[in-house]
Amino acid sequence: MSTSGKRTVGVIFGSRSVEHDVSIVTAQQVMQAMQPHKYDVVPIYITRDGRWITGAGLRDLKNFQADNIAELMGISETLISPSTQHHGMITPPTSGLFRRNHVRRLDVVFPVVHGSHGEDGTLQGLLELADIPYVGAGVMASAIMRDKLMTKALLSHFDIPVVPHIGFTRQTWITDPKHILQRIKTELGYPVFVKPASLGSSIGVARAANAEEVQNYINIAANFDRRLVVETAMDEAVEINCAVMGNDDIRASVLEQPITWQEFLTYEEKYMRSEGAAGMKGAERKIPAPISDELTGHIKKMAVDAFAALDGRGTARVDFLVKESTGEVYLNEINTMPGSLAFYLWQEDGLTPTQVVDELIELAFDAFTEKRKTTYSHKTGLIAHAAARGLKGIKK
Asked: Which of 161, 233, 298, 393 has its CB surrounded by the most CB atoms within 10 Å?
């Protein structure tokens, strides 16, 4: 905690991800929601080529229109050290005759990197090594929920219905496309959705009505991921979404029914339909979703059960497809933080964005307290034994 009594919060965003621009906007929303009297906010921006920088200028969205934001006044190179001795940032990373570096302790990190190298467990791994509390799911849960195929496999194991699908690698598609096309035809039928397995924001996602279209869209999606998923389109279903929040004690938000004029939300529809940060809401919505109380309760329970089954923490938005004719419910996707902070859903439950951010930070400290209960050091006599008798015969 800083000398002012405020918590120092590092907000990490950007990075080497095709969802880079979304991350910048989300980070501005998160930092704007943090109360100045409670937090010292430290923006940490990872450039498109992987450089880490920090400085007050990163809190102004307009500065990101510059060709080289790293050259702005007051911007310095930095990094988060994996060493527990530092527990924070080293700025600049290297020192010299006329350049000294300093360490700034971070009380907690709010990761706002969408997609690759952030939402997938990699950034969480660095923070685990550094022993810094952080908001959102841990390494394993982040990696699993980021991967659509792994999520579907595990949810099926817990008897949570998922949308019919097939998965395959880019290499399999290159070497034997006919086999994949036959599987799509016989196991799913048309229309289908083609998706990269581990991306969000609708990037690389397309609806295919026939074999010719599916070949084209798989070729496009294969540029974004080495693993791909093709799902039944389920045109007769309506989308119902629910946010969840918590670590062990998980609660569900009010439900929403997105209303769009096309088959699915494109990147532009999600983030660019209206001006300003409010445009991040994307499509029109019905809140609460116009469904029965019984179905509402069923979907909320499925959302909580799925989040708990995958060891989620913090918050996420869980997307469902409901067949109107039969009432069958299928879990479609889980969007972990920051893919969805669902400010607009929690607002229906009386929580402002500021209150959501406060609660997520408290949940991060709760998770860190739980981590402290685990023993990570265990000394044995093995080294002395090996030193006295030699390495030969020691089991590996």
From this structure: 233
